[in-house]
Structure formats: C-alpha cells, structure tokens
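step: validate -> pass
step: tokenize input -> pass
step: predict -> running
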Amino acid sequence: QVQLVESGGGLVQAGGSLRLSCAASGSIGSFNVMGWYRQAPRKQRELVAVITSGGDTTYADSVKGRSTISRDNAKNTVYLQMNSLKPEDTAVYYCRFRLVVVGEDYWGQGTQVTVSS
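step: predict -> pass
step: emit ->
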C-alpha cells in the first residue's frame, strides 16, 4: 500500500504561481512514476505532468513552459511548480503514484486550485 499526502492548492489570481507537493509513504518500490492530473468541472481527468524515479518528465501541452515537475527521491515527494496561471487551470489536482513493476496505481484525495481572472 502507498499513502499520498497532497498540499499546496489554493486561490490565486491569473498570472500568479502555486507549488503543489505530494508525499508518498509505504511500499514505494524502486521504480515508480509520480505525477499530477487535474479534473475541471464537467471534464475528464487529464494529465498535467509526470516524472519517473529516474527523472524523465512528460508535460501536457497546455502547461508546457509554465510548469515544472520535480521530485526528491529521498523524501519520496513530487512537486509541481505552476507559473503564469490562467483561469483555465482551475481544477482539482490529483497526485498519482504508479508502481511500474506491479502495475499498481494510487491516487491522492485531490487539492483544489482556483485561478481568478
């Protein structure tokens, strides 16, 4: 089992910045993928950014150039720095942890990000 604790959401004006954090604990394993997804009202959950335990990253086109995902493997924590936020970034952001070898996925409970215009 893996437990995820998210933090860092909130209300910010357009053009502002936020940093999301997600700390994992439990049966972490040596090869995993951590990342962020988001779900806006009446929309499907979508990928924002992911990072492997080796440091490879993938970003959605909508956040590329405005966001940076990073991780601290010693702390089993992933961070998402979001800059130049837009109202369309408003969503519940979910942390995802994937144990690649066994194909198990774990999700955080979500943190609300609201960007006002």
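step: describe -> The longest strand covers residues 18-26.
step: cleanup -> pass
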